[in-house]
Specification:
Blueprint lengths: L1 H8 L4 E7 L8 E8 L8 H4 L8 H13 L1 E9 L1 H7 L1 H16 L6 E5 L15 E5 L2 H4 L1 H24 L5 H4 L5 H10 L25
Parallel strand pairs: 1-4, 4-5
Antiparallel strand pairs: 1-2, 2-3
Helix pairs in contact: 3-7, 4-5
Length: about 220
């Protein structure tokens, strides 16, 4: 939390932002933004928060609930598969982060700490003068980014669980939209559903949506 403390000592409010689902072939990309509360900096919670990919699902869910109780503000935003196909994953990644930060509201942050993304900087109408920093492996180095990564992952997992109920054959509740062997086999057997990203390989090489797949 060293960088956050440095900004806090200057009277600046810090927002961390990260995404989940960039590499999946189905489902949305999800971004979360979090403004930590300096008054809660001593909580043991922040010593345990880590990159969401390093945490077990049940621990992530516990942390997500706790984070929501100990921050100044938080928000989650999504970009749907069809939009990803239309604008590309790099712009979709950027757009999801922009939306999450915008949803925090004007006057809630002065500095943005972001995990590394290709399209930069972020366009922030809510805070056009905000100082922006993108950091390689930021979700493993800065608590505010790690907290955002947890919220994004937990929210996206919940969305994929709901998609699993609609399209059980693809196993979204297990693979979260990523291309596992079982997922690939099901795609080969019956083609994609409406939640697949048709611009992603191997889907980009396949035929359009099959009428046998119901929305």
């Amino acid at each position: 939390m060293e960088r956050e403390r440095l900004f806090w000592s200057q009277g600046l409010r810090v927002a961390g932002v990260d995404e989940a689902g960039r590499g999946a072939v189905a489902g949305p990309i999800v971004a979360a933004a979090v403004v930590l509360n300096p008054a809660s900096a001593q909580l043991n919670l922040w010593k345990q928060v880590d990159d969401s990919k390093r945490l077990k699902p049940d621990i992530r869910c516990q942390f997500a609930e706790a984070i929501g109780h100990h921050v100044v503000a938080w928000s989650v935003a999504t970009v749907a598969p069809r939009a990803i196909d239309r604008i590309g994953i790099d712009r979709a990644n950027q757009l999801a982060m922009e939306r999450a930060l915008q949803d925090l509201g004007a006057g809630t942050f002065d500095v943005v700490l972001s995990d590394w993304i290709r399209r930069w900087p972020l366009n922030l109408d809510a805070a056009p003068a905000a100082e922006q920093h993108r950091i390689k492996k930021g979700d493993a180095r800065h608590v505010s980014i790690a907290a955002a990564s947890i919220l994004a992952k937990v929210h996206r997992d919940a969305l994929m669980d709901r998609l699993h109920d609609r399209f059980p054959a693809f196993g979204f509740g297990r693979n979260r939209g990523y291309l596992t062997a079982t997922h690939a086999a099901e795609l080969a057997a019956q083609g994609p559903c409406t939640e697949h990203r048709m611009s992603f390989k191997p889907l980009a090489d396949e035929q359009p949506l099959l009428s046998s797949i119901e929305e």
